[in-house]
Automatic annotation (TrEMBL), chain A:
Pfam families: COX1. Pathway: Energy metabolism; oxidative phosphorylation. It is a multi-pass membrane protein. Keywords: Cell membrane, Copper, Electron transport, Heme, Iron, Membrane, Metal-binding, Respiratory chain, Translocase, Transmembrane, Transmembrane helix, Transport. GO terms for molecular function: cytochrome-c oxidase activity; heme binding; metal ion binding. The lineage of its organism: Bacteria, Pseudomonadati, Pseudomonadota, Gammaproteobacteria, Alteromonadales. This is Cytochrome c oxidase subunit 1. It is an enzyme of class 7 (translocase). GO terms for biological process: electron transport coupled proton transport; oxidative phosphorylation; respiratory electron transport chain. It is found in: Cell membrane; Membrane. It catalyses: 4 Fe(II)-[cytochrome c] + O2 + 8 H(+)(in) = 4 Fe(III)-[cytochrome c] + 2 H2O + 4 H(+)(out). The chain crosses the membrane at residues 37-57, 77-98, 119-139, 159-187, 199-226, 259-277, 289-308, 314-333, 354-375, 387-412, 424-445, 465-488.
UniProtKB/TrEMBL annotation, chain B:
GO terms for biological process: aerobic electron transport chain. Its main location: membrane. This is cytochrome-c oxidase. GO terms for cellular component: plasma membrane. It is found in: Cell membrane; Membrane. Residues 4-292 form the Heme-copper oxidase subunit III family profile domain. CDD domains: Cyt_c_Oxidase_III. Pfam families: COX3. GO terms for molecular function: cytochrome-c oxidase activity. It is a multi-pass membrane protein. It is an enzyme of class 7 (translocase). It comes from Alishewanella aestuarii B11. InterPro entries: Cyt_c/ubiquinol_Oxase_su3 (IPR024791), Cyt_c_oxase_su3_dom (IPR033945), Cyt_c_oxidase-like_su3 (IPR000298), Cyt_c_oxidase_su3-like_sf (IPR035973), Cyt_c_oxidase_su3_a-hlx (IPR013833). The chain crosses the membrane at residues 16-36, 48-69, 89-110, 117-135, 155-176, 188-208, 228-253, 273-291.
Length: 528, 292
């Protein structure tokens, strides 16, 4: 390494932290912003989760017990919106903020002030969304996919608020993605070449491209919904020359890459955790990078597999079916590589590893049900049933959410400087694992038997399974309270963590002390 | 390795992001309520909140850019920082391209697929026969299936002139840039001024065209799919031209104050990229909305 020139006068002192509320409101520090994203995501996870509890309460027994159908619809809608845009995406962005600069040896994110702006507009966006629930006539009740004409002709007054809050969420995501790309492209330490980057950095890099490509399309979709509802346009109205199916095309052109936006960073996390606890380098690093990129490219060619039952021409249906099935190939490469990494490894089973292992198994189940759904003739049976609900909850809850929890356990000692309580963590893991399967596995069966999704009542033959599912749901919700307990306990103290934290951990983030100093890598580190 | 690293400037705390967040909240919440009230023909606080939000946003932009310009002029920005800005702007423009793609995509789908299907193409013979048997699937869609009639906007009048104006403005902006790079400040100022002037003329003509469309052609926002795509595409393009012109206006003021050097002129570069992008969008628009 070499001489470092300090060009400007105020050479701030290393661990000088601003104090009080101003630290959080005015911050430009990637670690502060990362923490805010993560805390925000956790809060939204519980708000969105409590809406899921309302849904499961109503579905505990057949017949209408607790809520009105219209309120039930608002719960399914806002639950989805909050979990996608308020919990999973901000959690990943928070992890990116915390970890990417440390992993590539950068002093901070490339555009620190914009970073703070992308965070702070998010709570306001969700404030608008949640306030809309209290409007006369209620909040959005057309499903998180807001299909026209449900969101145009038949929606209630508050739709404009929904539209503008989605706009802000999109602006936040786009700015966050630009920051991630520029940081990775421009801020890597010398000799941190592309193919030396940790896989979490790679997967986020590709995710950020997806975000930049599709979030503006979502903005276009909500804008057309707004003008259709309030300004008399007819994009989605056949009488004016439009087509409701056009909405679905635009929405899913965003929506399918969005699915990968919520899973690619998870792949990166698991690819960091498995080698650490198997004490072996990741098997097939390069193939992991190429597989991630292929998944991203393919994600733009599969959107209409959400629309097989809309009456598309057969050729289009076949095209989207085959492209969708093709995605199983790079995904299979990943699962194979994770398993091969563990092959003959010296494994230990701390909580992050447990969640990562559960991720591999349960995500693969979700992937297989996805393959079933990709088969057009079979999809005619599964479409809009609980089978679909089971599929995407397997990939999003026991996939994305489990990976986020794994990441939290994995990096908590680096963030707080203390080890978390391993015993409580294991309790959290086992409670989550059992309840999540009790919750989502029976949904496959009721779905195959024909129980429709998004309906507050069901036929009597589904009663027993639904009771199980609801019990699983309540247990899963309660289990997450253990997680909060672990986090709070770990933040307040405990066994001191070493710099490396985990015996098998490798990478730049493990070379700085725990807790990581407020400013890391003011001068670029040595990369071997 | 014997390279010297410049320090990457990480700004200290800044109040502007949170001010900007409050501004966006007021804009979104205000605009939402304004639209809702408007649809029910009642009055409320929405419009005022929207205006307040816009005012805060302007305040934030002025403060934020003042900080950035001060930092830049006092030499805090390394060449690495300059690259961050350039890359950030490029990806922002990519996201803008995708925003327009949503509307172009809607136009293509509506014209090539939805209209033909309403006319009975593919497997939709019964849709046509039962719903609107009188519908004529011809583009421009001057009569919707529901029976709203309008007139199409001809390409070879004002729109062609506007195309020429924007194309010329891109060329003059390019010469302003070469002037800056060769340190010919006179050429820079003159060409930048001409670019701005052409931008303003474009916007005025576009405004006149809207009046003409509404008054003479009966082409309105709510006159079916043709009117929808016409107004949303040209309208969002017009907004972007306005934004681009504002950026170039402030760049022009900075040029007059003697800012920018042949080597370092990110703000100019960003404004220029944005202007060229807006120009390319217009060329696509001219072909797909007006000519074809």
């Amino acid at each position: 390494m070499s001489a470092i020139t300090h060009e400007h006068e105020h050479d701030h002192d290393h661990d000088h932290k601003p104090t009080g509320i101003k630290r959080w409101l005015f911050t430009t520090n990637h670690k502060d912003i990362g923490t805010m994203y993560l805390v925000f995501a956790l809060v939204m996870f519980f708000i969105g989760g409590s809406m899921a509890m309302v849904i499961r309460l109503e579905l505990f027994q057949p017949g209408m017990q607790f809520v009105e159908p219209q309120f039930f619809n608002q719960m399914t809608t806002v639950h989805g919106l909050i979990m996608v845009f308020g919990a999973v995406m901000p959690a990943f962005t928070g992890l990116a903020n915390w970890m990417i600069p440390m992993m590539i040896g950068a002093p901070d994110m490339a555009l620190p002030r914009m970073n703070n702006w992308s965070f702070w507009i998010l709570p306001f966006a969700f404030l608008i969304l949640l306030l809309s629930l209290f409007m006369p006539g209620g909040g959005p009740d057309f499903g998180w996919t807001f299909y026209a004409p449900l969101s145009t002709t038949y929606s209630n007054d508050s739709t404009a608020l929904f539209v503008f809050s989605v706009h802000i969420m999109g602006i936040s995501s786009i700015m966050g993605a630009i920051n991630v790309i520029v940081t990775i492209w421009n801020m890597r330490a010398p000799r941190m070449t592309w193919m030396k980057m940790p896989l979490f950095v790679w997967t986020w890099f590709i995710t950020a491209f997806l975000l930049i490509m599709v979030m503006p399309v979502l903005a276009g979709a909500v804008t057309m919904v707004l003008t259709d509802k309030y300004f008399g346009t007819s994009f989605f109205d056949a009488a004016g020359g439009g087509d409701p199916v056009l909405f679905q095309h635009i929405f899913w052109f965003f929506g399918h890459p969005e699915v990968y936006i919520m899973i690619l960073p998870a792949f990166g996390i698991v690819s960091a955790i498995i080698p650490t606890f198997a004490r072996k380098p990741l098997f097939g690093y390069a193939s992991m990078v190429y597989a991630t990129a292929s998944i991203a490219v393919l994600s733009f060619l599969v959107w209409a597999h959400h629309m097989f039952t809309t009456g598309m021409p057969v050729f289009a249906t076949l095209f989207f079916m085959y492209c969708t099935m093709l995605i199983a190939v790079p995904t299979g490469v990943k699962v194979f590589n994770w398993v091969a990494t563990m092959w003959r490894g010296a494994m230990t089973f701390e909580v992050p590893m447990m969640f990562a292992l559960a991720f591999i198994v349960l995500f693969t189940i979700g992937g297989f049900s996805g393959l079933m759904l990709a088969i057009t003739p079979a999809d005619f049976q599964y479409h809009d049933t609980y089978f679909v609900v089971a599929h995407f909850h397997y990939v999003l809850v026991s996939g994305a959410v489990f990976s986020i929890i794994a990441a939290a356990y994995y990096w908590l000692p680096k963030w707080t400087g203390y080890m978390y309580d391993e015993r409580l963590g294991q309790l959290h893991f086992w409670c989550s694992l059992i309840s999540v399967n009790l919750l989502f596995f029976p949904m496959h069966f009721v779905g195959l038997a024909g129980m429709p999704r998004r309906i507050p009542d069901y036929a009597l033959q589904f009663a027993d399974f639904n009771a199980f599912i609801s019990v699983g749901g309540f247990l899963f919700g309660l289990s997450q309270l253990i997680f909060v307990w672990v986090i709070v306990k770990c933040a307040r103290g405990g066994e001191k963590a070493t710099a490396q934290v985990w015996e098998g951990a490798e990478g730049l983030e493990w070379q700085v002390p725990s807790p990581a100093p407020y400013h890391t890598f003011d001068t670029p580190p040595e990369v071997k | 390795m014997s390279k010297t690293y410049e320090k990457y400037y990480v700004p200290a705390q800044s109040p502007w992001p949170i001010v900007g967040a409050v501004a966006l909240f007021c804009i979104a919440f205000g605009a939402g309520h304004y639209v809702i009230d408007m649809s029910k023909q009642q009055s409320g606080f929405g419009g005022w909140l929207l205006l307040l939000g816009l005012a805060i946003l302007v305040f934030m932009l002025v403060g934020w850019f003042r900080n950035v310009i001060d930092e830049s002029m006092s030499g805090l920005y390394s060449s690495q920082m300059d690259r961050s800005f350039r890359q950030g702007m490029s990806w922002f423009i990519v996201s803008e391209v995708m925003f327009f793609m949503a509307f172009f995509g809607a136009l293509f789908y509506g014209r090539v697929i939805a209209m033909e299907w309403l006319g009975g193409a593919s497997n939709n013979a019964m849709t046509f026969a039962i719903l609107w048997p009188d519908f004529q699937p011809v583009w421009p869609l001057v009569k919707t299936p529901g029976g709203i009639e309008t007139q199409a906007m001809p390409a070879w009048g004002l729109p062609a002139i506007n195309t020429a104006i924007l194309l010329i403005s891109s060329v003059t902006l390019h010469f302003a840039h070469t002037g800056l790079e060769q340190n010919k400040r006179g050429q820079l100022k003159g060409m930048l001024f001409v670019t701005l002037l052409l931008g303003v003329i474009f916007l005025c003509l576009q405004g006149y065209e809207y009046v003409h469309a509404y008054r003479d052609l009966g082409l309105r926002l709510d006159s079916g799919f043709y009117g929808n795509t016409f107004y949303l595409l040209t309208g969002f393009h017009g907004l972007h031209v306005t934004l681009g012109a504002l950026i170039l206006f402030f760049v022009f003021l900075r040029v007059l104050k003697g800012h920018f050097t042949p080597e370092k002129h990110f703000a100019f570069q960003a404004g220029a990229w944005y202007w060229h992008f807006v120009d390319v969008v217009w060329v696509c628009l001219f072909f797909f909305v007006y000519v074809l």
